[in-house]
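Risk register update: the risk of archive-format incompatibility is retired. Evidence:
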Amino acid sequence: MATQDYLDFELNIETLPNDQLRVTLVNSPVGSVSIEVPNPITPAEATRIISILDGSAHTSRGEAARAARAFGEKLFSAVFSGQVYAAYLTSRSQAGERGLRIRLNLDKAESLYDLPWELLRDPSGDYLALSRQTPIIRYPRLINVRPVVEVSLPLRVLVLISSPKDQAALNVEAEWQSLQEATADLRQRGLLELERVDDAQLITLQRKLRSGVSYQIFHYIGHAMFDERSAVGMLAFEAPRTELTQPVSGEALARELVEENSIRLVVLNACQGARQARSDPFSGIASSIVARGVPAVVAMQFPITDDAARIFAHEFYRALSEGYPIEAAVAEARRALSSSLNNLEWATPVLFLRAQSGVLFPKRRTYSERPSYGGLREALLRPRVLIGLLAAIAILFGLVSLLNSLIAPSQGVQGTPSPTIATFTPTPDAPRNIDLVITRVRFLPPNPAPGQAVTVAIELQNNGTSDSGEFEWVWFDTSAEAENATPALRGKVANLSPRAKTTVIGTYRFGWWGTYLTTAWVNPDNRAPESNIFNNLVPRTLSTSGEPFVVDFSRLPDESLLEPSALRGDEFAKWSLALRVETDGNPECAAASLLLTLADDLNQVTTGLPNAPSRCANLPVIFELSQPSDGPRLNGARVEFLPTASGEHTLEVRAADDSVRHRETLRVAADQVNTPQTLSVSLDGAARLVLRVPENGRTVIRRLTRTVAQAQP
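Archived output:
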């Protein structure tokens, strides 16, 4: 059960001229920082994602899911970039099981305010809002917030149901039934009460709230709309007598609810209850209510189906009844929507929260409810025991004073110093001051060829005045913010003294031609508590040379040695290369595989049956040549092999559909047998190579060399 008190990660998003954003980390477990980044979302992208979520764009479920993921990751990568991202990762680590509450202040976000920020998605993880560990809340500018007060049970929920005759029919009875089911256990135990109001007039609500009954939650079921002309959010109440729509602004509703000082939560199960004007952050229904002091509002930013509204209400109240904070309860309801409906309606609810804690209704405790701790602590909580203990201390103090007066020498005797009683006052531990920084990142060689071993040297220094103790360092071969980014190198340092330096090293092999934005990071988990974590992350660009990419089958991409054994064929996938055997439909060789053998201290790729290597030893070997979309394309390849029989050896170039584009043939004479030979081909976008040997020979491959256009022959 999630009863944790979250740590806060508060972000202020502000639009600037020239299509820039200022992202300010106002509050976090590791401090604050401000960065400026380009606005990542174009108006066309904003319009498209909103039209998908509000149902005005007709897209397939798969296309909508892909669009939401791409949008969420793009928004996350911009807002959570650089030092903000470093602080986020460190804060997540410090928060642990308590969870990290993502507070978004969008008061100055202007055109970005009505974006679906609930879609924020960590490319290396998931949507933040779908986890109770990273709930997303809207945290508007502080206007007036009611203090947290203890309440006596039962909690009272006032449910107002509005269904004007001129609005689309809602299945309000089904939603009311869901509310009753979700709260049945609470109501049976006397912890919660539901009171239904069907006369949806503002005057009726006014009279109900002044009746003397204290309500803690107001729940609205009905329609809402956002008037584009007046830029004001409206609820569809019912007009007297006609029962047609009577628009009620968020301000008017807030006026009534704020007068009822016991209400701490408003739930608006109505479409667009969370929308507001870009120029006025308090023109919406939900924002108006929060701005006037109600600590928490749950509202919908897009149209929501009846099924989704019922599922959300059911799981939301159930989670609250199980003791979840409101942030976690909303996350649980989102997850229920996601798993039940398998669409994007989980992103429709918005939580506005200005309370310091998501526990909105602390129960008033009586003496009988005091928790039992047992042992001495329990005894000390009992009045009689406590009085007796105080009396005993007083008697003991009096006896010590009397004894001291009897044995102390006379104060008037000259030359006899009065004895002194030595006292010890422990010196409090001085606060630790640790500041680990990366002073240099080097690559040797500085411009390696793809596949070449590179030494990564990272120079670290402790600029603080305290020993660091043990800490970790990591290095990413890409940006630390890239999708599924995991450290390529990592290690530990036992200690670094004040002002001391050390250099840590590792070996790495880059998998393609191009320029890499790498990232070095010291103390990523903040194990050594630092005074400044914003200088722990250093990007460093490396560009490979245009030299050929040689794979000699001696080492894997992770630098580990390849030992003689059977090969799966995907060991070199990180280098955009895979190998497999072509059996040519020979049933006797159906179980044949690639084998790695050692000869003259060189690894060689051969074929054969695992338990009979001499059989099926002449099978063709296929090289799958995948190519990254963001790098230069291959223009040539060369295979070095060891002929074991005279005759024709062929290297075929095949297209993606396996058709043969062209082939190069080498006739090996008898005096050339067991002498390494090569076959070279032009690729021109080909997908695979196939090496064939004579029927009476063996397939023995020593290395594969790939080249790109800028490579030197």
